[in-house]
């Protein structure tokens, strides 16, 4: 028996449609990116212009047609490098969210446990201004008890963010 090489057969109409929809979905992901993130991709000028136009459109129908146009333009480029870079960008976003959650947990722990948590934080980060940190924690605790605003709550979070930059 001989094996048949299916790669030489022409693509079916259904497969062509699937490929077209996949490129259009990839184009949709590109439209959702910020200008700074888009700059990381090596896209031709016509495609970048079409993406910029799609970002400005409010009408559902017009945006759908523009996304179809972006999909058509993407047929001439290799999608694998774009997909790899998109995956990398999404992973960086997930890492940033995880980092912010960690900071929120530290903030909540510092407010709840006070000096115990401050000592642990100082052991991890010896260059932290101990006095300023204690002051922020104390003020945030008082704010929480009095149920007045969140000024020091936010300042404590910002300070933790500075520490772990």
What topology emerges from the helices and strands here?
Layout lengths: L12 H19 L3 H4 L6 H12 L3 H15 L4 H35 L1 H10 L5 H17 L4 H13 L2
Helix pairs in contact: 1-4, 1-5, 3-4, 5-6, 5-7, 5-8, 7-8
Describe this structure in words.
The protein has 165 residues and is mostly helical. The chain has two domains: 12-77, PSPTO4464-like domains (Diphtheria Toxin Repressor, domain 2, Orthogonal Bundle); 90-163, Diphtheria Toxin Repressor, domain 2. 76% of the residues lie in helices and 0% in strands. The protein contains eight helices and no strands. The chain has helices spanning 13-31, 35-38, 45-56, 60-74, 79-113, 115-124, 130-146, 151-163. The protein is elongated. The termini are far apart.
């Amino acid at each position: 028996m001989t094996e048949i090489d299916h790669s030489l057969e022409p693509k079916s109409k259904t497969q062509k449609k699937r490929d077209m929809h996949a490129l259009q979905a990839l184009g949709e992901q590109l439209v959702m990116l910020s200008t700074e993130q888009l700059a990381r991709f090596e896209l031709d000028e016509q495609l970048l212009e079409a993406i910029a136009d799609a970002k400005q459109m409010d009408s559902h129908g017009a945006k759908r047609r523009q996304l179809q146009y972006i999909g058509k333009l993407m047929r001439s480029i290799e999608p694998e490098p774009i997909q790899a870079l998109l995956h990398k960008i999404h992973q960086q976003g997930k890492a940033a969210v995880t980092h912010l959650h960690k900071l929120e947990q530290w903030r909540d722990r510092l407010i709840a446990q006070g000096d115990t948590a401050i000592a642990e934080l100082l052991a991890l980060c010896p260059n932290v201004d101990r006095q300023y940190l204690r002051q922020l924690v104390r003020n945030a605790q008082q704010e929480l008890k009095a149920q007045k605003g969140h000024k020091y709550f936010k300042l404590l979070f910002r300070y933790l963010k500075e520490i772990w930059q």
